[in-house]
Write a structure and sequence with these properties.
The complex is a heterodimer of chains A (120) and B (364).
Chain A: E1 5-14, E2 17-22, E3 25-30, E4 42-46, E5 49-53, H1 56-68
Antiparallel strand pairs in A: 1-2, 1-4, 2-3, 4-5
Chain B: H1 10-23, E1 28-34, H2 35-43, H3 46-49, E2 54-61, H4 63-66, H5 69-80, E3 84-88, H6 102-107, E4 111-114, H7 118-127, E5 132-139, H8 144-157, E6 162-168, H9 172-180, E7 188-191, H10 193-199, H11 206-211, E8 214-217, H12 222-237, E9 243-245, H13 257-266, E10 267-269, E11 272-275, E12 279-282, E13 286-288, H14 297-300, H15 316-320, H16 352-358
Parallel strand pairs in B: 1-2, 1-7, 3-4, 3-5, 5-6, 7-8, 8-9
Antiparallel strand pairs in B: 10-13, 11-12
The chains are: A alpha+beta (120), B alpha/beta (364).
Chain lengths: 120, 364
């Protein structure tokens, strides 16, 4: 029900009505809720309505953040332990910026992936 | 598909899972509120990637799952009236009422049509002026704006053979009801991404502030859900408790004010509404405003309006509040299957039971 599909607007029929394309399939969608959306914009479509525009820069930023997770699988294990993580379950495999032991140069420090305070 | 495929990268998923394993110092139970999230978790097997300390509880955010049986019976009664065409989303057709579903009513001769959008139902009314087209509307704040705009269109164009049987619900009251349930097992929430495109992130603030539980608004791809899980664990590890937004590519703190205005223009809160599994919750659902009585099916037609208790064997109620998992239900996969659902959670693909059944998550 709450399925939303990213679609790209390919033409504007009239104010509030556009044609959007998803994987080659085109369909009329109402843009009454996102009148600012124009040709070429990506929107999130739900039951025939564009609910919101998709922010390309934010989408890229989310992917960047994911890439930055400093957990190279197969990277050398480093002493990760800091008081706050003592006793953590699972194999600790990475360095921490808060650690007294500085991580080896291959490991990215925690501070680089700790920036998840997006927009509360 | 753009904005989808890149968030399904297996290599990144394993990296995130490893981070989650390290962060999960103690057991944490996270309720993903939205049925879309439940579906994605089951479909992509995310639970298998996570350490045993992290458990997902599946919440009440599947509109098909929470609709009480009495309202389904009302819709079937509407469809049985002469001259009425009942239009609704495909998911709703198989929801069992007391004596069968809308699909069975259709087989028995009622004019029941499946539509993708409420606008399609309005178009039906235009094309068939001799029929009374009733749109059986359900959904949270994600779907309510679509119904709202459709109603405004109908009024503007003077389409008088169109009406709405409104069953729209709101997300915050059931969350509060679950949090107030004695013995609740939830430590944190993954909040529904698409509801939040409309309402924004502010309405969840009471959860950390009054109940001390973390909230992360999440998108729907596997990497999004893993990243959101990691965000919750990081908050806990760092002693923070707040509402964070992982779905920044679509969700703004203020939501979509235009969509909220459309809802406010056409609908108002009901005093109370029944939810399957949760019972009656005050001010948790919407009805049409009196100004739109002409397009309100509840004003225009006689409805039975009876309260119908759930079937005894069905444990949807416990599943919807996270008290048990789908496979722990007595009738899961035996008396209750997607082909012949006893309970609503087995109907929609976003229902927890249907997701478990479809993706074989009942072996564990």
């Amino acid at each position: 029900m709450c399925l939303g599909i990213p679609a790209q607007i390919v033409s504007v029929q009239e104010p509030g009505l556009a044609v959007a394309e998803v994987s080659g399939v085109r369909r009329e969608v109402s843009t009454a809720l996102v009148p600012e959306a124009g040709v070429g914009d990506w929107v999130l479509v739900h039951v025939g309505f564009a609910l919101h525009t998709i922010d390309e820069a934010e989408a890229a930023r989310t992917l960047e953040l994911l890439e930055q997770v400093d957990f190279g699988m197969g990277e050398p294990m480093v002493p990760p332990w800091t008081p706050s993580f003592a006793g953590s379950a699972g194999e600790a495999m990475r360095g921490s910026g808060e650690s007294a032991v500085s991580p080896p140069p291959t490991a990215v420090s925690r501070s680089q992936n700790g920036n998840t305070k997006d927009r509360p | 598909m753009r904005y989808v495929d890149e968030y399904r990268d297996g290599r990144l998923a394993r990296k995130l899972a490893a981070e989650i394993a390290e962060l999960a110092a103690e057991p944490v139970r996270i309720m993903e509120v939205c049925g879309g999230h439940t579906h994605a978790i089951a479909r992509h097997g995310l639970e298998d990637l996570l350490p045993p300390e992290v458990e997902y509880l599946h919440g009440p955010g599947c509109p098909v799952c929470v609709i009480p049986m009495g309202r389904v019976d009302d819709a079937i009664a509407l469809a049985a009236q002469p001259g009425v065409t009942l239009a609704t989303f495909g998911d709703l057709l198989r929801v069992p009422g007391r004596r069968g579903s809308l699909l069975e009513a259709k087989a028995a001769g009622a004019d029941v049509r499946m539509v993708y959008s409420p606008l399609d139902a309005l178009e039906l009314a235009r094309l068939e002026p001799a029929r009374e087209v009733v749109f059986f509307a359900i959904g949270f704040e994600t779907t309510a704006p679509a119904t709202a705009i459709t109603l405004l269109r109908a009024r503007e164009a003077g389409v008088r053979n169109f009406s709405v049987f409104c069953n729209h619900v709101t997300i915050v009251p059931p969350l509060r009801a679950i949090l107030d349930t004695p013995g609740t097992r939830i430590d944190a929430f993954i909040a529904p991404g698409h509801v939040s495109t409309v309402i924004g992130t502010e309405p969840y603030r009471f959860i950390p502030e009054q109940y001390g539980k973390q909230v992360v608004v999440a998108a729907f791809e596997p990497l999004d859900l893993l990243a959101s899980t990691a965000m919750i664990l990081r908050q806990r590890a760092e002693g923070r408790c707040e509402v964070e937004n992982q779905y920044t590519r679509v969700v703004r703190p203020e939501g979509n004010p235009r969509a909220l205005a459309a809802i406010a223009e056409t609908m108002e809160l009901r005093d109370t509404f029944e939810w399957r599994g949760l019972g009656f919750i005050r001010e948790s659902a919407l009805r049409l405003r009196p100004e739109l009585a002409e397009w309100d099916a509840e004003e225009r037609f006689e409805l039975p309006g009876e309260r119908v208790p759930d079937r005894k064997a069905c444990q949807c109620g416990q599943i919807l509040v996270g008290a048990i998992k789908p496979h722990e239900c007595k009738v899961f996969g035996t008396a209750c299957t997607p082909e012949r659902p006893l309970g609503t959670c087995m109907v929609s693909s976003e229902g927890a039971c249907a997701a478990y059944y479809a993706y074989g998550r009942h072996a564990a």
